[in-house]
Target: PASTA domain-containing protein
Amino acid sequence: MINMRAAVAAPLLAIAMATATSAVSNAAPDIVGRTFDEASSILRSAGYTAVVVATFGGRTARADCVVTQQGNRQSSNGQEALLALNCNAPLAGPGVPGNSAASPAGRAAAAAVVRVSKANVEKSLVSGLATGPGPSWAQCSGDLVGIVDSSIDCTVLADSDKQTYTLTVTDIEDGRISYNIGPKE
Model:
């Protein structure tokens, strides 16, 4: 799905940034690729005010959005850095927009993402759901990836009851993934 507002805004943003950049004699520090929180701190220490002129996506908190474009201008308020932010998740997942795992940014994000292997998720489900002596097994669609709102489906046979569940990541903290589990809808 294409976000038409973003698709139309990008060329206008590029023109505005190109025009604004030529109006400032000394350039702001290059902060493209940094989070908004890091960029704001660097710009503030250099005497610039960060001004967000475009935001794409909305899966992360503004402080964690990544600066994708930068321009500079002099205004009555002083020196300003005009910023475009990408607020999608660092790595795309099922139903979660973000960087492709095949892109350089996606590969870096994937390497940093916490995950629980498919085998470990299956073992955990069997031990948590099977209480009787009968046959038990679990089969999941993949690893549980530490990206909030990402999910996997797992079919579990426990105590002669076969059920398909959806596990949805709710939080990642200190290398641990928290998730909700519920019947697949």
In short: The longest strand covers residues 161-173. The chain has four helices and nine strands. The beta strands are 49-56, 66-75, 78-86, 115-116, 137-140, 144-145, 151-158, 161-173, 176-183.
